Amino acid sequence: MSTTLPTGAKIINGVKTFIPLENNPEVHTHLATTLSVQSLTFHDIFTLSPPPRDLPHPINALIFLAAAPIYTRARSTLQSTLPKYTTTNETDPIWIPQTIGHACGLMAFLHCVLNLDDGRHLARGSELAKLREELVSLAPGDRARVVYEALFLEEAHMDAARGGSSGVPGPEEDNGFHFVGFVKGGDGRVWELNGGMPGPLERGVLEDGEDLVSEAGLRLTVGDFMEAAKEVEGGGYGGLGISLVGLVGV
Predict the structure, then answer these.
(1) Total domain count for the chain?
(2) Which domain holds residue 240?
(3) What's the longest Cα–Cα distance across the chain?
């Protein structure tokens, strides 16, 4: 049983459910503009071997999309071993559990823009900047509640989701992909930020001058997903199984 909301989102089995986002720079730029995210550009990354050199740098945040079989192979075992993240630490990034159906693209976007350069790309006084200020001191469950109830995020997501280049699925349709956000902090630590996991995952530390699409950065971020893609029939970078967008602060 479902109920359609004014934005076009639906309540399905008691859960607010969105139209999935596409992972492309145009959609993310649209979403960023709507949410008053400034001085950021979004770039398709079409090749990883060798690491891309024709893009602006540093790329310290990535929005990654993987087909469900690839994602499951790379993360199902790890997910079962992680403790639930219940208390926030001021040295950790802002991590938000996902409680909205088909909103993993929005969650990856938020995890990147809220944490990249400590949120300095959010326009001062904007709704998203105010949301960040509220989220910082909240426990993860309360963060999820605030995001779930934020109408401005729902409106922005649904508007951006309709602007993709492929056919727009309905909220009730199965979504065979999952988004993940990666961010390099000012201290060099690399974080995997995924609302579907039990908490934020620290992947390692990069040296000064290394960004997320350096050889070391790719190994700490999408490396194990790439290995999983090789093992899944039909998977592989540049095909239908994986896509990657890099964020660059201007």
Answers:
(1) 1
(2) 2-249
(3) 52
pLDDT digits (tens, 9 = 90+) for 163-213: 765 555 656 666 789 999 999 999 999 999 999 999 999 999 999 999 999
Give Cα separations from 35 to 15, 24, 32, 130, 160 (angstroms).
24, 17, 5, 11, 11
For 41-81, what is each residue's pLDDT tens digit? 999 998 888 888 889 999 999 999 999 999 999 998 888 89
| Cα distance between residue 222 and residue 216, in whole Å | 11
Dihedrals phi, psi of 31, to nearest 5 degrees: -65, -40
- The DSSP bridge partners found for residue 191 are 183, 202
Question: What CATH number has the domain bearing residue 66?
Answer: 3.40.532.10
CA–CA distance, 178 with 68 (Å, rounded to integer): 6
Residues with Cβ within 8 Å of 190's Cβ and at least 6 positions away in sequence, in order, are: 182, 183, 184, 202, 203, 204, 205, 206, 212, 217, 220, 221
Chain Cα centroid distance, residue 77: 21
Work out whether strand 40-44 and strand 242-249 pair parallel, antiparallel, or are unpaired: antiparallel
Q: Where are the alpha helices (DSSP H) in the chain?
A: 25-34, 68-81, 104-115, 127-136, 140-149, 151-161, 215-220, 223-231
Sheet of 242-249, strand order: 40-44, 242-249, 61-67, 177-184, 189-193, 201-205
Tokens found for residue 148 = 């779930």
Q: What is the amino acid identity at position 2?
A: S
Strand-pair category, 189-193 with 201-205: antiparallel
